[in-house]
Write a structure and sequence with these properties.
Layout lengths: L2 H30 L5 H23 L11 H5 L1 H22 L9 H6 L5 H11 L1 H7 L26 H28 L7 H17 L2 H17 L5 H26 L7 H12 L2 H12 L12 H5 L17 H10 L14 H9 L3 H17 L5 H15 L6 H27 L6
Amino acid sequence: MGNIDAGLLNLVELSTVAWLLFWAGYSTFRLAKYHLRSVYVVLIVTFLLLGLPLLWDFLFGVPSYFTLPGMAPANTDFASRLLYVLYLWMIPPIALIAANGGVNKTTSPDSYTARQAGHAIAKGAAWIAALSPFLAVLTSPSPRAYFVYGTVDHRYPHLAAGVSEYEFARHHVLVTSACLISTIAIAYLVYAHKGTLFTPLALSYLSILIFGVWVNGKRNAFAFSVFLIVMALWSRGTLKPKAVVTIGVSAVVALLMFSSWYQQDTRSADTWSSELAYNNTRLDYGRDHTARLAIYRLIHNDEKDILNYPGQSVIYYPLAMVPRSIWESKPPNYGMMVTSAALQDDNHFRGWILTTSWYDEAIANFGFAGFILGPGMLGLFCRVGDRKGPGILQMITMFAGALFVAVHLQAFMPVFGLWLVIVIQSKNQDRKRLTRDYQILPSGY
């Protein structure tokens, strides 16, 4: 890449940062005014995970990714980087247009809470879901392994005798799913809690959250918990916009500090370096690298595609819960295939995968059409979730919308399944209501 091309690219990338910052600021302002639309949350997370990395490239340099030989050329290729910023310019308008038609009105926090408080059946179900991580851990092949935080990242040194890593990891998927559902349930209980939150019952929510974050063992579990609880407190009017911003910034700083310590603790001093630390930070807190990898494999015919055929990972999701013991030829998930592409290796179980985003998965599945379908389908998802207005469905839609940007679908399949159940139930209730209203109309109508 020549000096002129590099300078031009830097200018284009910095203007892209400003473009996404504008939409993130606009979204934050609208949410602060209780103008509740899930797509605003999506645009904020898009800026953080896909826009800000461009600024880090300019200030600190493009990561070498020397441990990922297939990733490095994708992040320095001029055409891939240029198409990447074009993609980022397309995301806000396409997502907003697709999301248009959902509820688009200002809502007071009091009316937001009043729609859910007092539902005894919902609260009972939420308590069962909140306590599910305890049952998941107790039924693990090696419950004692959870005395160590991040036992998966420590490569399972504390497993019970006779328990294989694969057996434990397979059950750990159930544990992480239970923790995710538990976090949503706690957020709902906080959101619908009547009166002050400084009671023994309300404070028990915190104990359950801490347990879930611990046994999950992933740093993003802390981020998810903070996001949901802050959103619940803000929705019920307990936190004002300024407090939300203060807590959010404090949580990000705390997460970065803990992440730096944790990575050094789980790796030997012989392999740790400032270059590796920078690479790992970018892998953890950015999704630009996987999007560029998908674009790079798309435009270079001499490179093998990430997927074996178009739409492969989309077709995979409805069948994701089928055990491999029953479906022996079950293909790997999208995260595993991206990891194999980055390592230039074949697909097999490693115990870890790269974190991906729906934005790059759309390109890997649909090619250039993914530039439109990526943000477009995400906008439609937000539109469906916002249709009923403020309520538990919209809270889950905001959370799931952020997760679509941050991870691949299989990582939060229980959340998506819960969202789908609520949407179907909501549509059935609307159909019954219309039928009932039609039956009671006077005969003259």
